[in-house]
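I have a small job for you when you get a moment. Would you make up a two-line entry for one protein for me to read? No commentary is needed, just the two lines. Write everything out right here, beneath this request.
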Amino acid sequence: MKVTVGLTTWSEHHALIHAQRPVTLNEYAQHFPVVEVDTFFYALPQVTTVQKWLGEVSPDFQFIVKAHQTMTKHPQAQLPNGQSLAEMFKLFTRTVAPLVATDQLKTVLFQFPPTFTATPINIEYLMQIRKWLSTLPIAIEFRHQSWYRQGVLASLIGYCQELKFTLVAVDEPHQLPTSVPFELVTTNPQLGLIRLHGRNTQGWNHQGSDWRKKRTLYSYSKEELAGLKTVIEQLSPQPQELCVIFNNNSGGDAAPNAQELTRQMNLHFSGLVPRAPEQLDLF
């Protein structure tokens, strides 16, 4: 099983360049073979922007692209310009076409809101997603416990296998009413996906305007990463690839934690952008 490691976004991981300025995609791609992009969640970028990204990375580099918020049924999401949801899916498909053409789209991530519960209507919507994106790789992440109830989870796993969805294993504070359990299972033989949000129990339910920063303010210890390594190695059956994405960004811990897991698992990523020579301090 091939194991890849990456981060959410590229610009804010200052530890990679040892400087307090935005990290470029080219600089990021010197360290990791994959990145998760949330730009699409808020507004679809221009195709020219996507093509520009491809010019900054190696041919082996891949992107995980978040689905637009209307596609994941977020309560406040508005379809632009009076478009239908079906039209939004078509526009999304056209926008990611450059990534598909170069085989650099690892998967489309559907991160559903807590309001997306395990109801018959929502289960049917999952099938509709597969119909609208019939040829694209899809990963789904749930944020409501109803999907993990006894009797529901087994059916969900079978449903994901049938639709060739990757069911995302989510690491976050557990045993909370507002969190979901960590369930690492292979539902897609091509790809498994782990997303690490951190285990900040106190910050998880923070309700202020800075809730996102509080939620992902967490640094994984070496012992916790060793435990994750064991879980990954014990996964059976194994997919062709297991991708691990660190989302604990707010304290600058994602990149160092990802590098530590890479060291512990003795991973070596081929096809990275050649590392830029570091400037020598001669004085």
